[in-house]
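Ligand: EN5. Inputs:
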Amino acid sequence: NQLVKDDSSLETIDLGDVSLAEGPIEPPTPLSEVKQEPYNLPTQYEWTTCDLDSEDTCTEVYNLLKNNYVEDDENMFRFNYSKEFLRWALHPPGYFRSWHIGVRAKTNKKLVAFITGVPARIRVRDEIVKMAEINFLCVHKKLRSKRLAPVMIKEVTRRVHLENIWQAAYTAGVVLPTPITTCQYWHRSLNPKKLIDVGFSRLGARMTMSRTIKLYKLPDSPATPGFRKMELRDVPAVTRLLRNYLSQFVVAPDFDENDVEHWLLPEEKWWTTYSILKAAYSYYNVSTKTPLLQLMNDALIVAKQKDFDVFNALDVMQNESFLKELKFGPGDGQLHYYLYNYRMRNALKPSELGLVLL
Ligand code: NHW
Ligand code: EN5
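Predicted complex:
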């Protein structure tokens, strides 16, 4: 039994192995005590580890997600991640193939469910915690409500434990126990006519289409002198800039140069034009000399140049300082952030969060 200090007072509370202080809840168990065999699935199904480097497997994952992954609350839109995007998302430095988990129907070998983890170092205040980032949980629409998701979550948890990692970070549009913060999605129209035509946005009260198009017009090119795409040679400077910026947030990734090369260096081959709606996402925005507002306006301009229809952002970090002024409007979706097996004493404000997951 362990004695833990309640850091809000000088009291010490005996809780056995469970801590009420901020930090890990359950302590790690010896690796020899981690279950060695996968959890049982209903008998018609079997586990598969997905190799995204295989073109055929990547196509299967792509199709499962394209047809069955996250939708908005009116089921009008569904995420449609390209194969290149999925490969990038799932192959960061130090990734484990065993964390890319599929479920197949035994009869025809069809891929019917998927869940993934990738390793990350996440700083919570002044502790750097090895975590898994869990994402792309998906059960085929025809197999919903059969309690497949809890088995998949237990299985990914087991495989993460086998790598001696005991914490995880994840986001979801639904409320689960217990968010560390709840963020609001904001959207900036780049192609308002198309967004209205497809039902992503509505014509405002007392607005005509031509006034709306005028409202969202942007200059043809960025205003900031020297504004350019990041290159490989920029990795050391970007790492320094970003690490320094992220140090002010309560929860943020601990990126080294390898992580920055993987996560920040631009990769343009993803967005082939088959999707009906092209959405650009705000990721990590750091400005020292240039006002953040101007930098983000330039980001809108290049997103427009690259033919994106909408620019999405969350109210994390310092994003509130530009959202309204740059004509972003609140969306109908929220994003809840969670940590697994790590207690936060209080919920955070979105502006205290320095973490963006894919
Ligand atoms: S959030 C995106 C999740 N995916 C989708 O929304 C896609 C469309 N929906 C589906 O595919 C980003 C299904 O509806 C899913 C549920 C698969 C969502 N997280 O199988 P049942 C992520 O990928 C709980 C966690 O019958 P289903 C993050 C629900 O509360 N739990 O439902 C993923 C209920 O539990 P309860 C979720 O509809 C993080 C149970 O599932 C959830 O056929 C995962 C019902 O299961 C969600 N998004 O399939 C956790 N949605 O206890 C990682 C529903 O209330 C934890 N549920 O009965 C950490 C693990 C690693 C630890 C390492 C130390
Ligand atoms: C985590 N990696 O609800 C994955 N999106 O607002 C899980 N709404 O796009 C993420 N309903 O508001 C799950 N248009 C959480 C996200 C789930 C997807 C989701 C929302 C976020 C969204 C759009 C479309 C709504 C369609 C009808 C929306 C309004 C745009 C408008 C533009 C002009 C200014 C005001 C806002």
